[in-house]
């Protein structure tokens, strides 16, 4: 997960009530997690969240910056898919 909660207030959705306001993980913590799972031999990395497009709005960054940082952590031999 790259974040939890959401920014929306959709009347049909209970995510915000269940998970709370948007809380994004820092790029540094996600990079460290990527390095650890790659070192453990993980071959397929997926990102997920309740509000993926809103990633980073609460901490002053955005999804494209995160994606570039994740790609930079992947092995050059392409042994891990993202």
TrEMBL record:
InterPro entries hit by this protein: rSAM, rSAM_sf
Signal peptide interval: none
GO MF term (any one): tRNA (N(6)-L-threonylcarbamoyladenosine(37)-C(2))-methylthiotransferase activity
GO cellular component assignments: endoplasmic reticulum
Swiss-Prot/TrEMBL keywords: Transferase
PANTHER family: RADICAL SAM PROTEINS, THREONYLCARBAMOYLADENOSINE TRNA METHYLTHIOTRANSFERASE
Protein's name according to its UniProt entry: Radical SAM core domain-containing protein
Organism: Kingdonia uniflora
């Amino acid at each position: 997960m790259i974040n939890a909660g959401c920014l929306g207030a959709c009347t049909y959705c209970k995510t915000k009530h269940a998970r709370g306001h948007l809380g994004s993980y820092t790029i540094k913590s996600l990079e460290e997690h990527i390095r650890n799972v790659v070192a453990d031999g993980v071959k397929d990395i997926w990102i997920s969240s309740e509000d993926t497009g809103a990633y980073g709005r609460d901490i002053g960054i955005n999804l494209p910056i995160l994606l570039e940082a994740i790609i930079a952590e992947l092995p050059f031999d392409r042994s891990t898919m993202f």
